[in-house]
Amino acid sequence: MNPYLEIILRSASVYIFMVVSLRLFGKKELSQLSTTDLVFIILISNSVQNAMVGTDSSLLGGLTAAFVLFTLNFILKQWMYRSRQFKETIEGKPIILIHRGTIDINHMHAVKITMDELEEVVREHGIESYKKVKLAILEVDGNISVISGDDKLLKQTNHKRRRKQKTLVRTN
Q1: Which of 9, 139, 148, 135 is nearest to 69 (CA)?
Q2: So what's the pLDDT on residue 35?
Q3: pLDDT computed for residue 98 by the predictor
């Protein structure tokens, strides 16, 4: 078999595997990039590198693999743009967590969000109780959008779900 055709097939297989794996592990994980997640991503990229290029460590082999990944990503985005059903299959749908002050426990269990996490998001938006939330939605990118039920505060804000991190304070 032509070595570049082999790189193309290997790269395409790895790309499809990664898209399916990310879909199976859920959107909740997409917006939570911690140190361990970063290490995981680096290790995954290192582990699949050889699966894509095999023994070919040449510049042309690496560029061929990169070109295949860019091409497949472009094609996937085009299909998602043209077909709502395909996009929902790949990315999923937004999920309502709170509607008019009522929490949807079944949805929370389905996406593995705890009550503590949801209450924290609500408080971070300046709302003291989930009962005052008009709508809270887990978006397809893993963010939680919260819309206040208070007419004075009626605005949409986004919360990027993340793990607690140390913050650095600058002093002059």
Answers
A1: 9
A2: 66
A3: 94
> For the segment 135-172, what is each residue's pLDDT rounded down to a tens digit?
999 988 788 899 987 655 444 445 555 444 434 444 44
Residue/partner pairs of 86-93 with CB below 8 Å, 24 or more apart: 90/19, 90/23, 91/23, 91/27, 91/140, 92/23, 92/27, 92/140, 93/140
Q: How far apart are the C-alpha atoms of 118 and 129, rounded to whole Å?
A: 10
CB 40 within 8 A of CB 85: no
Query: Do β-strands 133-138 and 102-103 pair in parallel, antiparallel, or remain unpaired?
Result: unpaired
* Residues forming beta bridges with residue 138, ordered by sequence position: 95, 144
Rounded Cα distance between 169 and 9, Å, is 49
Q: Whole-prediction pTM value?
A: 0.60
Q: At what angle do helices 59-82 and 35-53 cross, to 10 degrees?
A: 110
CA distance 164 to 122: 16
Those residues with Cβ within 8 angstroms of residue 3's Cβ, 6 or more apart along the chain or in another chain: 54, 56, 61
